[in-house]
Design brief:
five-stranded parallel beta sheet; globular; 8 helices; about 180 residues
Length: about 180
């Protein structure tokens, strides 16, 4: 699918970890996007936020299709991307995912293999592939939660990702402290 004005459809990829971002995703999907969809509809444009927590089956997960689906949906949503980061780094797939799904190696081969070997989370892979490594400008926004949860500890990989996003200089980065505050931004 081509995410252009010609097809009168805008797809927005939402990237975040799932477990700690349920409230944020719910708020965006139920409160924020319906208002934006209404405005878009007045201009004869369909706005489709892509929230993959409902779109990946257990069978797809077992057969190594999670990464493929995420990367394809990022491409389908290009150039629209929202990244939301909280206090979890997220699931870090292993290089075995490449063995389960030949399409991964064929389409995204070298760089994906390196990311998996480095132990990057699927969330960081999405943000790197969808925005940060792109040579072209993307309509991307990042939102970083001011985390008060000291029980989970800080992850060096998460801290590095947040620093990379804050210092990228190409895309707006906003801090938020609640789903409602995120929605206002």
């Amino acid at each position: 699918m081509n995410n252009t004005r010609d097809n009168r459809q805008i797809r927005i990829f939402i990237s975040s970890t799932f477990q700690d971002m349920q409230a944020e995703r719910d708020y965006l999907i139920t409160k924020v996007f319906p208002k934006i969809q209404e405005l878009a509809s007045e201009r004869d444009v369909a706005l489709l936020p892509l929230d993959l927590r409902w779109g990946i089956t257990e069978d797809e997960s077992k057969t190594g299709k999670v990464i493929q689906i995420c990367l394809q949906e990022i491409e389908n949503s290009h150039p629209f991307f929202i990244g939301v980061i909280g206090d979890r780094y997220g699931w870090c797939p292993t290089s075995e995912e490449l063995l389960k799904n030949e399409i991964l190696k064929e389409r995204w081969g070298e760089w994906l293999e390196k990311d998996l070997e480095m132990g990057l989370s699927i969330t960081e892979i999405e943000m790197q592939y969808g925005v940060l490594r792109s040579k072209n400008d993307i309509n991307a926004y990042f939102f970083i939660k001011n985390c008060n949860d000291t029980t989970t500890g800080s992850s060096p990989k998460l801290d590095k990702l947040k620093t990379t996003i804050r210092n990228n200089g190409r895309y707006p980065v906003f801090e938020y402290n609640s789903p409602e505050n995120l929605g206002l931004q």
